[in-house]
Amino acid sequence: MEYFQTAWRDGSSLNKGLTAEEFFYNQIFKAVESNVENRTLPFFNEKANSIPVELSTGKLINDENLIALEQIAAKNGYSSNVWIYGDTLEKMQHEGIRLNLKKGAEPALCVTKYANATHLNQDELYIAEGGAKTKAQFLYNYDSLDERSKQAVDKYFKNAVQINKVETNENLKNYLENLKKSKTEVIPRLEAMKSTLKNVAQISAATLKKGVSKITENVNFGPIINAQMRHMCQVNTGASIRNTSNPAMENACYSFLSQVIKTTNENNGKQWLVGEAMTRAMDAGSQYAKSCVSKDFNREVRKNKEEQAIKSEKLKKRNYKAEFEY
Fold first, then answer.
1. Could you read off the pLDDT of 11-33 as tens digits, one per residue?
2. Residue 136: phi, psi to the nearest 5?
3. In this structure, are residues 185 and 177 in contact, taking their beta carbons and an 8 Å threshold?
4. Which of 225, 229, 224, 230 is nearest to 245 (CA)?
5. I need a surface site. Which of 81, 124, 211, 325 has the fewest CB within 10 A?
6. Which tens digit of pLDDT belongs to each residue from 42-96?
7. Distance between CA atoms of residues 279 and 68, nearest Å
């Protein structure tokens, strides 16, 4: 029976002495290191056209987990963006379905982010929603299974989930409308996002210096944020918007990350902290791209309305209780 990693287990020898959060960022550092060496960074993949999706729930995987899945998929040469909980695969085996991983298959640890938020799209996945129902779980790429196992998985779930074409078409429509608006008017949310990107670049630089004390000069994560933003605009629109990065930008990203990785390794830096710095920068690019394909550049409007509605509802209940007791 094939062994599948499922939920994160504190104290396991597989953790390499790291916490779940440290392991999460450390795997990203390792994947980026390999992708830089092989020039396979996912945000320069012209064929990329879908967001990672979890098979058993059919939900999209966003936030920092998206960074982990894309980097690990690129590192291992996986062309699929479909991922499956290790716990789900293990349960299938217990039901008598024989599954096998390809040699060298690598799972990705994903973690539930922003667990108390109320504003994530219902089509987006909290990692704790499925699988082992825990906040930190391992997922396997569809392409990490051998062909016979893929057929068994397809039969079990009817068919592999494909990215929602309606959503990508809507994203493209919004992107073009937003682009048109930005040429004739100042859009507050867009301007605020630009300011946020500068702050994130500074935070990433500070985090990097914590991981590698030898780094004292100014560090610019701007090219990485920009590359991820362009990549995610392409992915969010099903590749209808092409990534128009030029060779100079691509070389700048590879050169920057190569130097960061080299300095980290030569000075025994904390790889997980450097991975966190990289991840935060790339996630900022992803969030900016999400705003570009949102209807009004402003998903926070919905968040604020929902949170205000919750506060109002709680206030009503308190007032009603007070009146009743009186």
1. 998 898 999 999 999 999 999 99
2. -125, 115
3. no
4. 230
5. 325
6. 998 887 778 888 998 888 888 899 999 999 999 999 999 899 999 999 999 999 9
7. 8
* pLDDT (tens digit per residue) in 288-313: 887 777 665 444 444 454 555 556 66
Q: Which of 130, 11, 3, 17 is nearest to 65 (CA)?
A: 130
Sort 299 into a burial class: Cβ within 10 Å, 0-12 / 13-18 / 19+.
Answer: middle
Q: Which of these, 41, 23, 26, 109, lies nearest to 257 by C-alpha position? A: 41
Residue 237 and residue 230: Cα distance in Å, rounded?
11
DSSP codes of every residue in 120-186: S-TTBPPGGGSTTSSSEEEEEEGGGB-HHHHHHHHHHTSS-----HHHHHHHHHHHHHHHHHHTTS-
Amino acid 226 reads: N
Phi and psi torsions of 194, nearest 5°:
-60, -40
Residues in Cβ contact with 286 at an 8 Å cutoff, skipping those fewer than 6 apart: 62, 63, 66, 67, 228, 229, 232
How many Å is the maximal CA-CA distance in the chain?
A: 73
List, in sequence order, the alpha helices (H) in the chain. 20-38, 63-76, 86-94, 147-156, 165-182, 188-211, 222-236, 247-266, 271-292, 300-325
What gap in Å lies between CA 322 and CA 326, rounded to an integer? Answer: 6
Sorted by sequence, the CB contacts under 8 Å of residue 325 that are 6+ apart come out as none
Alpha-carbon span 199 to 211, nearest angstrom: 19
Are 188 and 181 spatial neighbours (Cβ–Cβ below 8 Å)?
Answer: no
Q: Which amino acid is at 321?
A: K
**Opening angle at CA 84, ends 122 and 134, nearest 5:** 65
Give the tens place of pLDDT for each residue, 171-222.
Answer: 666 666 766 666 666 566 666 677 788 888 999 999 999 999 988 888 999 9
Burial zone of 296 (CB within 10 Å; 0-12 exposed, 13-18 middle, 19+ buried) = middle
d(Cα 19, Cα 28) in Å, to the nearest integer?
14
